[in-house]
Please model this.
Amino acid sequence: MKDRITRDDFARMIAGGAALIRAQHAMLSQLDCATGDGDHGATMLRVVERLETCFAASGPEDLKTCLREAGWSVLGVDGGASSSLLGTLFSGMADAPACGPWISASDLAAIFEAGLAAVRKQTKAQPGDKTLMDALVPAVVALQTAADGGKSVTEALHDAAFAARAGAEMTQNLTARYGRAKFLGEKTRGHQDPGATSMSLLFEGFHNGLEESKGDGMNVGLGRR
Model:
């Protein structure tokens, strides 16, 4: 378990998220075939490639700059609402005052809170609308709750990953209210939202990437969808 992390630890989180997206990109596209145009997996592959580039060892040395550049880079991905909102999330995270050289669980929660605040300025979607917000919002809430409870960064990410997955799975019971899927109405019920699913995969990967680098042996164990 880790009480504080650095920019390099954050890079390991990004690598963990990228690994899960690559492993599950076909599933993400399959989910998108039911409610969209079936390219969400391909979009997410481009997103994580840009994230990894910005967090590479040859990239900026400070976390704030990495996040800022990552956000702008992801905004440049041609992938509709998902890439736009993810780019906004990461650029917003860079605005957090807590974005310093050493990041505690409370700092990490504040960083994601800042990212979520930026996303809320770009979309009116709320949990229950069958979007990535169904996974992002509960994950950020779980991070803050864990931090307030004195948990470590690794433990907080573990809780966030579970909350994100639960939120993503709940979208199967929802009707889409935003994006192209909203025009399908009730036909979207029974299908898990691809955006929420990719967000849950990212949080699971964030946890696993950090944990594996520390050898803590507490795999999040969410399983595959």
